[in-house]
Write a structure and sequence with these properties.
6-stranded mixed sheet, 12 helices, 3-stranded mixed sheet, about 15% strand, 2-enoyl-CoA Hydratase, Chain A, domain 1, about 260 residues, Lyase 2-enoyl-coa Hydratase, Chain  A, domain 2
Length: about 260
């Protein structure tokens, strides 16, 4: 891996992916996204991994896409290279992904964070979709996920002006989970990851799938989907262990089976 660092056992059941193009402020070129795709595939198949953290470090998350790669491209070039196909793996990953964002998360960087399941942000975090300022628009989900997260009015303002918002504004709008000091970002993200990692891996996957389905269905369709996944948990040993532990007043020992 040239542009990311991967630690599949950063902690027990927790993997860490760190973007690693510091001179380019972690600009998302195609190779970096291919590396993220491949890493997520491997971690999703690794039974020892239950939660994945994605970060860019304390200074910057990702300042956007690598404009140099795209500046001279034609519409047909973009179509042929299928610019955003590498992003699909993030959406397909069944295990929870937590973005730990410090500094700029702009353009593709903001889209990358929003593609994750949760966002922890430092006090220095700044979010935005400034593509309009270079004559284009978001293309990796910015107009869709941002609107679902913060509502039409704010999304429209951010997309059409290219302005940035602070971590405090992002929290108030519902874009992120919480704000922590820069030096505590990874520690606090790990606390959240640990809380998730100690739960049943099977139930976590099914619950994540059900929450995400809420954005793609009507309420009635979503309820049917939720019930299906709820019933499916009763086919697992984890469900039997979890309920037995509750009755016996002890901590459950989930095995992911």
């Amino acid at each position: 891996m040239d542009f990311i660092k991967v630690n599949p056992q950063y902690e027990k059941h927790i993997a860490l992916i760190e973007l690693n193009r510091p001179k380019e402020l972690n600009a998302l070129n195609r190779q970096l996204m291919l590396e993220i795709r491949d890493a997520l595939r491997e971690l999703d198949e690794d039974d020892n991994v239950r939660v994945i953290i994605l970060t860019g470090g304390q200074k910057v998350f990702a300042a956007g896409a690598d404009i140099k790669q795209m500046a001279d491209a034609t519409a047909i070039d973009m179509l042929n290279i299928d610019q955003f196909s590498t992003w699909d793996q993030i959406k397909k990953t069944r295990k929870p992904i937590i973005a730990a964002v410090s500094g700029f998360a702009l353009g593709g960087g903001c889209e990358l964070a929003m593609t994750c399941d949760m966002i922890m942000a430092s006090e220095t975090a700044r979010f935005g979709q400034p593509e309009i300022k270079i004559g284009t628009m978001p293309g990796a989900g910015g107009t869709q996920r941002l609107t679902r997260a913060v509502g039409k009015a704010m999304a429209m303002e951010l997309v059409l002006t290219g302005k940035f918002i602070s971590a405090q504004e992002a929290l108030a709008a519902g874009l992120i989970n919480r704000i922590v000091p820069v030096e505590l970002l990874l520690d606090e993200t790990l606390k959240l990851a640990r809380e998730i990692a100690k739960q049943s891996p099977i139930a976590i996957k099914l619950a994540k799938e059900a929450v995400n389905n809420a954005f793609n269905s009507t309420l009635d369709e979503g309820l049917v989907f939720e019930r299906k996944n709820f019933y499916l948990t009763f086919a697992s040993q984890d469900q039997k262990e979890g309920m037995a532990a509750f009755v016996e007043k002890r901590n459950p020992d989930f095995k992911g089976k």
